[in-house]
Specification:
192 residues; five-stranded antiparallel β-sheet; single chain; Jelly Rolls; 0% helix; mainly beta; six-stranded antiparallel β-sheet
């Protein structure tokens, strides 16, 4: 229904980061893992250190579990926790990362700037999300229901990603039943 694909984080094997300072689990690489334009992954950060430099890549980053992090650039600083919105930055100017306690788990959205534009934002339960982008995704750390165009599209277990490559202008909405949502919307629109 609605052309959705559901991806479970648990069985995905971890891959070391380019700089070997952490691990990530790739949930989506579109159109392919070897030649992606957009990539969604969940990373585990266990120690302080720099992010990898990824020139030409726009990055979105959100803390989804743990005590949070401080990201530092030469002239900027962002404190991120599970209750803050995602951070957008240029992958070619990677920040240094400091843990604010124990390890964290983070949601990452990356897009090649020369191919298109991606966005990430925190879900507000019950609020409709409409986007012109055909590739749209929802990641959640808790059980919820994704409704599309007034119909229950899928019941999502925790730590799952739902995505569609044919979702342009659909009305997406989340119902979790507890009034708060630990979930994030993501989309990707190719350049004309």
């Amino acid at each position: 229904m609605h052309g959705l694909t559901l991806v479970d984080l648990a069985p995905i094997p971890p891959q070391p980061w380019r700089n070997r300072a952490g691990i990530a689990r790739e949930m989506l690489a579109w159109p392919s893992s070897s030649d992606w334009q957009v990539r969604i992954s969940v990373a585990d950060i266990g120690a302080d250190g720099p992010f990898s430099s990824l020139p030409g890549i726009d990055r979105w980053f959100a803390v989804v579990e743990g005590d949070g992090v401080v990201l530092r650039w030469e002239n900027a600083r962002r404190v991120l926790g599970i209750d803050t919105g995602p951070c957008h930055f240029d992958g070619g100017a990677p920040p240094a990362c400091s843990l604010q306690g124990g390890a964290t788990r983070d949601l990452n959205l990356m897009a090649r700037r020369d191919t298109g534009r991606a966005t990430m934002r925190r879900v507000e339960e019950g609020a409709e999300w409409i986007s012109s982008a055909p590739l749209r995704a929802l990641f959640t750390t808790e059980a919820l229901t994704l409704q599309i165009d007034d119909a229950d599209a899928v019941r999502m277990p925790p730590w799952h990603l739902a995505y569609s490559t044919h979702a342009s202008r659909q009305r997406w909405r989340v119902v979790s039943g507890n009034g708060t949502c630990r979930a994030w919307w993501m989309d990707y629109l190719q350049n004309p």
